């Protein structure tokens, strides 16, 4: 496993990270979840991503159990705040009140003394950025979080947060967590260059387009049993954007041809393609089986020739919606 700096900051994260959305505390049972998390760390993955809202807190509980049996300092543990955790008016968003209360709740569920990276899961148009920056800086000064980041923020929103932090001598956001993969490239034009200029690293999610970029889904054929797309409990974010449209799946099959030529798996090609960018600090993969982790970690350190990157650009003419 190779490691990269988180943007301009000193800490190093594994090129391949492991996430917990829809899987741990959810579709994957606890024993298998704990095995996979342990295995990921054995493979050199040091970056684990979760969120308060995943399985309504249960993902954090499972991740916390896995970390308990490990050296805490060997793990870079990320979680998030923003989405509703209850029905009250203050049970959501990025107010100082909700950030503090959810940070304390996450520390309890994770059963740790501090969070390495605390992320604003979305931008909150109802809360001044000053309030968010001050709350995050105070948590950092209290030792409850080490760094903070954002997720799916636009370039101008990221820039505002960094400017406010600099103006009040507070810790600025160190990372952005956007959706990014061969089929969904919306961050290339503004978010990546702005973040790079301001020192934030990208820690990208759904790098395999939720499994579509593994080549397991074939145009005109039923979704394979046991896959995310076939599971009505967890496929709501795949159905509805055109990730599994025949047009997209036919392109993926052409990409699969390139992977075969290179003698790598389709997943490895998709992950190495993202890691071609130095602005990306880590790709956060999900997994439901240990074999998937074994497959994905092999993308670390893989360098794709320019000619392959150009070929991929020629093939992918239809993007999926974000
Ligand atoms: N910030 C945000 O708003 C946000 C949003 C989404 C995700 N995230 C984070 O990003 C993480 C990853 O997102 P994601 O789960 O959508 O990522 P992904 O890596 O694109 O998709 C993961 C899914 O693809 C399948 N898969 C993975 N590796 C495979 C392989 N080598 N071969 C075959 N199938 C494979 C598995 O599903 P099946 O086995 O079920 O098919 C797995 O659960 C999440 O866990 C979460 O931590 C953040």
3D structure, described in words:
The protein is of the alpha/beta class and 322 residues long. The chain is 37% helix and 14% strand. The longest helix has 17 residues, at 246-262. The radius of gyration is 19 Å and the shape is globular. The protein starts with a strand and ends in a 7-residue tail after the last helix. The structure holds NADP nicotinamide-adenine-dinucleotide phosphate (NAP). Residues 19-21, 23, 49, 121, 151-152, 177, 205-211, 214, 216, 227-228, 267, 284-288, 292, 295-296 line the site of NADP nicotinamide-adenine-dinucleotide phosphate.
Task: Walk me through the topology.
Layout: E1 3-5, E2 12-14, E3 16-18, H1 30-42, E4 47-49, H2 58-68, E5 76-81, H3 96-110, E6 115-120, H4 129-141, E7 145-151, H5 155-167, E8 175-177, H6 191-198, E9 201-205, H7 246-262, H8 266-275, E10 280-285, H9 290-297, H10 306-315
Parallel strand pairs: 3-10, 4-5, 5-6, 6-7, 7-8, 8-9, 9-10
Antiparallel strand pairs: 1-2
Helix pairs in contact: 1-2, 3-4, 4-5, 5-6, 7-10
Bound molecules: NADP nicotinamide-adenine-dinucleotide phosphate (NAP).
NADP nicotinamide-adenine-dinucleotide phosphate binds at residues 19-21, 23, 49, 121, 151-152, 177, 205-211, 214, 216, 227-228, 267, 284-288, 292, 295-296.
């Amino acid at each position: 496993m190779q490691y990269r700096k988180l943007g301009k900051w000193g800490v190093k994260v594994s090129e391949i990270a492991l996430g917990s959305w829809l899987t741990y505390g959810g579709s994957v049972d606890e024993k298998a979840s704990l095995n996979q998390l342990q295995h990921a760390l054995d493979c050199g993955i040091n970056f684990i991503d979760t969120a308060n809202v995943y399985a309504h807190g249960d993902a954090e509980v499972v991740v916390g159990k896995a970390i308990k049996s490990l050296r805490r300092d060997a793990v870079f543990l990320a979680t998030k705040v923003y989405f509703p955790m209850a029905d009250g008016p203050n049970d959501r968003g990025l107010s100082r009140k909700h950030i503090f209360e959810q940070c304390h709740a996450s520390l309890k569920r994770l059963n740790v003394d501090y969070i390495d990276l605390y992320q604003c899961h979305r931008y909150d148009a109802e809360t001044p950025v000053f309030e968010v920056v001050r709350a995050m800086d105070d948590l950092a000064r209290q030792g409850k979080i080490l760094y903070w980041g954002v997720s799916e923020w636009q370039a101008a929103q990221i820039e505002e947060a960094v400017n406010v932090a600099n103006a009040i001598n507070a810790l600025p956001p160190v990372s952005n967590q956007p959706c990014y993969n061969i089929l969904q490239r919306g961050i290339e034009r503004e978010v990546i260059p702005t973040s790079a200029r301001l020192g934030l690293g990208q820690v990208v999610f759904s790098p395999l387009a939720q499994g579509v970029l593994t080549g397991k889904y074939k145009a005109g054929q039923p979704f394979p049993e046991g896959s995310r797309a076939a599971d009505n409990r967890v496929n709501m974010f795949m159905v509805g954007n055109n990730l599994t449209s025949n047009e997209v799946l036919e392109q993926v099959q052409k990409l699969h041809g390139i992977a075969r030529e290179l003698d790598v798996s389709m997943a490895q090609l998709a992950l190495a393609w993202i890691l071609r960018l130095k602005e990306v600090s880590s790709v956060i993969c999900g997994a439901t089986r240990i074999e998937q982790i074994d497959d994905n970690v092999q993308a670390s350190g893989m360098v794709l020739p320019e000619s392959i990157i150009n070929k991929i650009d020629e093939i992918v003419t239809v993007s999926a919606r974000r």
